[in-house]
């Protein structure tokens, strides 16, 4: 049963991919499970769905979680580079389950109204300073896991986002040094309960953003040296195959460097921390009439060079 589901999902991924996909030599770090392995493992996802290299089999001394891997910095990254260059056995994609590339980070930082075109959609001025909120780490799920509609909300909405993953600890980081603290990038879906975000809980955003399963991530952590320009990537979201969001990360008001400098004034950033950098226009709440997710919907969030995540709504 699980194998047939994975095969159908793999077929869907090949069908939805519209943009030139990543090279198999790019560094695409993943956390995964497989029936013959005990617990989560670290791996390298090869491009075009070629499969996954088991990094823990290549070097059993490597940690088995992404956060621990990132904490060791260049030491572990160099091992991953050697594994990528070697002719190693590849686990077929149909035999592995990809988890979120980062699980249980110290924090998930989110940025509101960070796309110029999204501000225009709401008829609000472009922010002069980043608008920061958060999700709890318990909201994170994998790239192909289900989104559970909570009975407490009737207005669950979609938001595709570029996520930055921190690779090096820092506080009061200068914008000019910020990229040295970045491990890489991944695709995020900032699922949002608009009733709780906009009307309930004193209009504080947290509860509407942090229900369980409200932060799908993946499919891989693509290292920064494998991304040509994170601020010039096509970004889109589809609901049941229909494009609902389509923009480019060049529309971001505050780029990665500015966001890291801003956030690190207030908090220490740790390896594995995730920063969701905002969503483009096309969300359901601002449609006329508003449109919200319902049971049975399928949401595909895709970013050029990073890949696509596919989540069924249940």
From TrEMBL:
Pfam families: FAA_hydrolase
Domain Fumarylacetoacetase-like C-terminal: 107-314
Keyword Protease in annotation: no
UniProt record, GO biological process: oxaloacetate metabolic process
Keywords for this protein: Metal-binding
Keyword flag RNA-binding: no
SUPFAM superfamilies: FAH
Protein name from the UniProt record: Fumarylacetoacetate hydrolase domain containing 2A
Species this protein is from: Otolemur garnettii
